[in-house]
User: What shape does this take?
Amino acid sequence: MGLSIFLLTGLSTSSFFLQDTLARIIKDNNHTPSQLNFALAHDNKVALIYAWQQTKHGSKLWQNIGRKLAKTEGKIAYQLAEFYLDESKTIFSDSEQAILWYQQAIRLKFHKASIALARLYFYQGYTQKAHALLNRLPLQTLIKNEDSTVVVAVVLMIEIAISEGRVEAVRSLLNQYSLLLKTDEKGISLLNSLAKYQVLLPKVKRKISDEGNKSSCSNSIQIFATNLVHLAQAEQISQKFTKQPLNTAVCFLPVRYIPLSMLSCSTANQSAILCDESQFYKIAPSVSSRYIAVMLPEGGANVHFGMLYFDAQDGINVIEHEISHLLGFIDEYPLSEGHVRCLANQEEAFSQNIAVLPSSYQGDKSSVRNKVLKQLAWGDKIKETTPILQAIGDNSLNLQYWKLGTPKGFEQEVGLFSSKTCDKKSNEQQGVINAFKPLFKRTKLEYNQVDFPFQYLALLGDYAEQFRMPSFHYNIALAYYQKKNIEQASYWLKQASKWELTHSRRQKVREGRF
Assistant: This one.
């Protein structure tokens, strides 16, 4: 039926009859181009939907038609939101248009949009907004109508509760919806993750003195994370570590969940993460590793005695660098001003790769050399032909003054080379306290992107236990000591000493001399 017939009848082009007839013709795909164009010009919904479906996804025309339809069609408002969210490349960039169209879809009672926007808010850190959207969903009605979106909503509610450390809320939601979750792949996947990462680990009453609770690996590390995304990420890190040079020196236990509410941590402005470590007494009985690593949403990576902290943005190179500290390696870039290792020259070797010694010596060259070598963890790796002392002034008078350090020409050898470790020393310490390292070249202890040198791996073979950090129980002891709870501090020092293999190390731990 041509447009001219409609016009001859005298009917208004905006009449219900015309719109309904055009809609029927277009729906049956019996329309002509001119009829479609006429219908589109008058915003006929069926014509707009037809044109929208035929238009290239994401094009300007597709967006313009979608905006018209989204005034009354919740599903299309949702699809627009998804498009704009994808266009923003990442949920952390400008996603205002996506939010506006999600909100429009929600007004039109398209429940899938509520869940999508709640997830967006959750990932952006607006958990209260996410809670509000999910709480307004008619879950029982959705369940009654067998709407598949209800499972997605419940999964998200549990994920949010996990990230906030509300373990009892997780338990309550599971009691209410576990049967429902088992009917859907997403729900089953969530239940598997909860079991895998021990989210609902029961309270452990076993005493930590139980020797059978220890991992058989000497330098075992238990990684904890505070939400499901980071748990999966931490698991990937432990798998990637198998390709790192330090892989043979450590082992990882299965990644586990720790409630964020249990941790009291400072992560401001990317400063070094540090938590109230006394709180780890709560999980210590269930941990069979020597060390604990904690992945947090943000903060600066660092090692504090037997605990390693890092954030979700840290890559495998950063983590290997930090793990080397657990094993007794010291940074070769400048430590903070006033660092304890740079306040005075060492009395004995304290690390795998750094020695803090006077810049000059006096005496018989052979005697001085032997004295210095005994102060180095790598002393037996220095060839007899590699010098570590250089004459100062005229030694013809037999005064025998020596400057410490391996001279040019021996840069490819293991020797005694200046390190930046103690560069931030006071004026009084200038020329008196100096840090030295085994290799001339830059290593991973100075720059994360550099490979871990094989010469350092050899040191681990000889001194794997001598310079490593005490177990994480030492951290708990120190935290209690700082709170002036001497009884608990002594108890946890005793637990830490049980992880040491030699009498001297056990005594050092019990006396808190790290």
The first helix runs from residue 3 to 8. Residues 1-13 have pLDDT under 50 and may be disordered. The CA atoms of residues 10 and 362 lie 117 Å apart.
